[in-house]
Design goal:
The complex is a heterodimer of chains A (about 220) and B (about 250). With about 220 residues, chain A is α/β, with parallel strands linked by helices. In chain A, about 15% of the residues lie in helices and about 25% in strands. Chain B starts with 8 loop residues before the first helix and ends in a 12-residue tail after the last strand. The chains are: A alpha/beta (about 220), B alpha/beta (about 250).
């Protein structure tokens, strides 16, 4: 019997460990957005949002304090922060395409063995959206995917080949799910960590491609 | 004397014709949306429009639900008229849009029309839309971008390799009119924006035959610090001031 699955907050905390002091980071909507809320005080991270704000503060959930003139790419009001910069959309994407984003954390419907990312069309929908995810997936220095390991029917989301239309080929570097941390390498998918109470075999059973189990396999932790 | 300030929204959009291509500023929220210009387009009832923007909008059908859903986070104004308004009214034949589909199980008016083959969708990422618009403003005919190679976005487009990396050829996106929202203007059409409301608005200024700016306030020439002006007035043909209080979209103004 496998252990419990991690909640969204724990997934975000595991992804945050990849951020280095001084990194420029762009967060997608959903679990990735949570990565902005638990930054350790010894790291100064500048968040970039597609709509052209850089170095902004925390998400504000109080309508009395929120300003509609300072929203992130998920249209959530955020706080002003000293050192913050505002640019227009073309400049914002020059920053992305120019390779100035150190890390992007994105959600996904599927990721392939080679690191292909599929996140532009929801299963069951006829019309998709790209937003800024394609630009980020192609051009950020490091692409981290945070997602549940399986879909709502319990089917694997990490596949040999994506069945959903891909957003970008061979772009994902690291997958952080509710049961594992998996690195995309030239040799295949490297299982680096498993959630507490889970074994490599139990994670493999929920994953279509074969996983290479790291000799230093660890339990997912916050440090 | 240069004076780009016009008296009414109806006058500001008076030369927009059936079949026009419109770059429409905004991102997703009310503060950056040129709501009263969109309302004027709805009143004018021009048809067969091609719209270019981040999203196809929520329209009136979802607005009440959206305002309620957002109430715990932010107070939305009642006069938020987005592209969904003219989509719902059947004025749009095509959208070049980055975010047409709503997250979750609901369908925006734009999404529904695309599903029913009533509206053609060209799905383009935000970076490519922004750069195609910037190129139009700058007189660049086309450019190579790495984004989209090997995906559905690249289908039918020229691929060329530079320094070992593949790029797609994308064309500039020049339009008949840019409808944008800014904070303050002077009579030359110089513009400043407020916070994250700059977004696509500043990008779209100057990329069309006519750029029309909806602003909170017109100030005296010289009141805007030249170091802080974001959009030079030469990109802007018309400026129109928003009403002091919320007005219904269908009221002539």
């Amino acid at each position: 019997m496998a252990g419990e699955r991690l909640d969204e907050r724990a997934i975000a905390l595991c992804a945050i460990r990849e951020f280095k002091d001084g990194d420029i980071v762009n967060l997608g909507v959903g679990i990735p957005t949570l990565c902005g809320t638990f930054i350790p005080p010894d790291k100064e991270i500048l968040f970039h949002s597609e709509n052209g704000i850089i170095g902004f503060g925390e998400i504000i959930e109080d309508p009395e304090r929120a300003s509609l003139n300072l929203i992130n790419a998920g249209a959530q009001p955020v706080a002003y922060k000293p050192g913050m910069v505002i640019v227009d959309h073309a400049e914002s994407f020059s920053i992305i395409l120019g390779g100035h984003i150190d890390i992007t954390v994105l959600g996904a419907f599927q990721v392939s063995e080679k690191g292909d990312l599929a996140n532009n069309i929801m299963p069951g929908k006829q019309v998709g959206s790209l937003g800024g995810a394609q630009d980020l997936a192609f051009c950020a220095k490091k692409v981290i995917v945070t997602m549940t390991h399986t879909d709502k029917h319990g089917r694997p989301k990490i596949l040999k080949n994506c069945t959903s239309r891909i957003t970008a080929p061979e772009c994902v570097d690291l997958i952080v799910t509710d049961v594992a941390v998996i690195e995309v390498t030239g040799r295949g998918l490297l299982l680096r960590e498993v959630a507490p109470g889970w074994t490599a075999e139990e994670v493999q059973a929920l994953t279509e491609p074969r996983l290479i189990v790291s000799p230093e396999l660890k339990e997912m932790g916050l440090l | 004397m240069i004076n780009k300030v016009v008296g009414t929204f109806d006058e500001a959009v008076s030369d927009i014709k059936d079949g026009a291509t419109l770059l429409v500023g905004g991102f997703g929220g009310p503060a950056e949306c040129p709501s009263y210009l969109i309302a004027a387009i709805a009143r004018k009832a021009v048809k067969d429009l091609t719209i270019v923007g981040n999203s196809g909008g929520w329209g009136t059908a979802f607005m009440e639900a959206l305002i309620k859903r957002m109430a715990s986070i932010a107070k939305f104004p009642p006069d938020f008229y987005d592209l969904g308004l003219i989509v719902e009214r059947g004025q749009v034949k095509k959208g070049i849009i980055a975010f047409p589909a709503a997250i979750g199980g609901i369908h925006t008016p734009f999404e529904k029309k695309v599903m029913n083959n009533e509206v053609e969708l060209e799905l383009v990422g935000q970076g490519t839309i922004a750069e195609r618009i910037r190129a139009a403003r700058a007189g660049i005919a086309a450019f190579y971008t790495p984004v989209g190679v090997g995906t559905f976005v690249g289908e039918g487009k020229e691929v060329r390799e530079f320094d070992g990396r593949k790029y797609l050829l994308e064309r500039a996106l020049k339009a008949d009119a840019s409808l944008i929202r800014a904070h303050k203007a002077d009579r030359y059409g110089n513009l400043v924006y407020k916070g994250s409301a700059r977004t696509f608005n500043a990008t779209m200024a100057g990329a069309s035959t006519v750029t029309i700016a909806e602003v909170e306030e017109v100030v005296e020439l010289g009141a805007l610090d030249p170091e802080h002006i974001v959009t030079p007035g030469l990109y802007v043909q018309r400026v129109v001031v928003r009403p002091r209080g919320p007005q219904p979209w269908d009221k002539p103004m």
